[in-house]
Amino acid sequence: MSNYNLRNLYLKDALDLYESFGEEEPAFAKNSSGRVSANSVRTNLSGFLEDNRNSAFVWEEERSNKSNLDEVSDIFTENLLYLFCSQLFLNKGELSVEVYIPQSNLNKHLNYEGFINSFLDLIANNDKVQVINIKIPDYYKDLVKYFNELGFIESDISINIGTKFQGDRNVWMKTFIMDKLSNWPSIWAFVPTEQAVFAIYGNEKKITQTKFINYSEYLEDISLRSLCINNKLADCNGYLLKDYATAMKEYKKDFNNLPASLKNAVQQSEEYFAGKRKKFDLPIVFDNFTSFQKLVWEKTRNIPYGSVYSYEDLAIEITGNSNLNPNSFSRAVGQALSNNPLVVFIPCHRIIAKSGNLQGYKYDVKVKDWLLTKEMLSW
């Protein structure tokens, strides 16, 4: 059984990086004489990561022979590919990304579709990035195919990177461009309520994120801000409007233009907020999260409408063990719930403190109280 995850690349990964690539390391890993060593990889990776304009990621596979991937001791991981990102023009919101795949992995099925979707979801949450320029060697044929299928714009400019592929021919670096305001495959949809605007993110096939946006809140993310302004949900300065009734009327004009999964999610959300729906039937996919997080969220999805569990109740539900250390495991459950990407659809608002206090909520405890009150009154 396999699980895929896009995680941060750390300095401790330097040796794995060196052993994966050898002489075909990214250019920044070479020393002044153009040679690559374990020491040069570590030194240059350290310098790369210390610059706050840079970031690096690993697309890894978790494998287990057992059905429950949450059994950490039985999980084995393999690094499948690496990404090195440089945000050189902060004022323009441009992110340059280079992708590297170890030679030993080129003929393997690396779940490229999952990788690209996970990366796009990651960048979608970065309000400083508007455009990404992804550079990959031209012999990554399967990856090139997926970029083209997802609607990336392929630049006419290719760069000779001065190395040979298997000693045979020059390697050219292809550049693919994607802009949040034009050819991005996912988009936001909005459900205004009396408490806040419920925002849903996804594409034709699936829903990947939800959030609440408070009225009068300034929208930091440029793509989200532009969509809200265009849909009359925000004023020209990017502040969410207070008048949700007017916002609802204006937004409905463009409802039929939404991708299929988003249109369905909006309809079901409206029914839920009106007290007419108690369960959701939506294409929810967890592309890029740990096995433990997925397990917590799946258990949370099964909590009945109008009911509440404590963090300890959920911990016992997951482990089947009422004798576990409640403090340590409950904290782990709470941490997983704080990273819930799909609030409401994964009803983490139904988890409260054992004392009966609401405790906290990602989008303000007032929203949590409002959701629980609405459910209990509708029940």
From TrEMBL:
One record GO biological process: methylation
Keywords: DNA damage, DNA repair, Methyltransferase, Transferase
Molecular function terms from GO: methylated-DNA-[protein]-cysteine S-methyltransferase activity
Sequence ranges assigned to domain Methylated-DNA-[protein]-cysteine S-methyltransferase DNA binding in this UniProt record: 291-375
SUPFAM superfamilies, alphabetized: Methylated DNA-protein cysteine methyltransferase, C-terminal domain (SSF46767)
Record-linked CDD domains: ATase
Keyword Methyltransferase assigned: yes
Enzymatic reactions: a 4-O-methyl-thymidine in DNA + L-cysteinyl-[protein] = a thymidine in DNA + S-methyl-L-cysteinyl-[protein]; a 6-O-methyl-2'-deoxyguanosine in DNA + L-cysteinyl-[protein] = S-methyl-L-cysteinyl-[protein] + a 2'-deoxyguanosine in DNA
Entries under PANTHER family matching the protein: METHYLATED-DNA--PROTEIN-CYSTEINE METHYLTRANSFERASE
Protein name per UniProt: Methylated-DNA-[protein]-cysteine S-methyltransferase DNA binding domain-containing protein
Organism: Fastidiosipila sanguinis
